[in-house]
Description:
5 helices, extended
Amino acid sequence: MADQPEEVTRLVEAIKAFEAIEDDEACAVAVTQALTHWTEQQPHLRALRQERVRALKAQGRTWEQIGQLLGGISAARAQQIAAGVSGAQRRKAEDAARKESQDG
Length: 104
């Protein structure tokens, strides 16, 4: 975990801490609360990533370079992130295209 940002390390450690809660009821309640907050925060994280990916592109980085920075994703996926296309939207589009090609 040494090569990841401190914020990521803290998040991973916080998630692991749930396993240390011995009381089943307390653990289930805590995890439920965390998941509720996570659901609320995901759009904020996606928007922040989109904003920063756009900034990297404006600084002259290529889509390939940005994809590598984001964990080795494709250049096309980096472009989709910049455009605000979520993984779910991408999968729906891929499924529709696949269905169309099978029907045609």
